[in-house]
Design the sequence.
């Protein structure tokens, strides 16, 4: 009789184990999705920062040329 009791306990735990496994799988999927979205947003931010850096470099160059031209003035 003890074996019947053990097998019924295993069957009773089975739905709980299945629920835990399903929850774990869903959480892993959610974390993977969030990780992918975060990676995408991060790469977009870095691309925009690179673009801003390039534009600032161009602006600094133009300002330096304008200052040099103004200081040289008519001779």
Sequence:
């Amino acid at each position: 009789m003890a074996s019947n009791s053990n097998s019924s306990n295993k069957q009773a735990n089975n739905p709980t184990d299945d629920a835990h496994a399903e929850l774990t799988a869903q959480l892993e999927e959610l974390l993977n999705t969030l990780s992918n979205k975060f990676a995408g947003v991060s790469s977009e931010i870095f691309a925009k920062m690179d673009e801003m850096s390039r534009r600032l470099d161009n602006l600094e160059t133009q300002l330096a040329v304008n200052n040099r031209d103004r200081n040289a003035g008519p001779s």
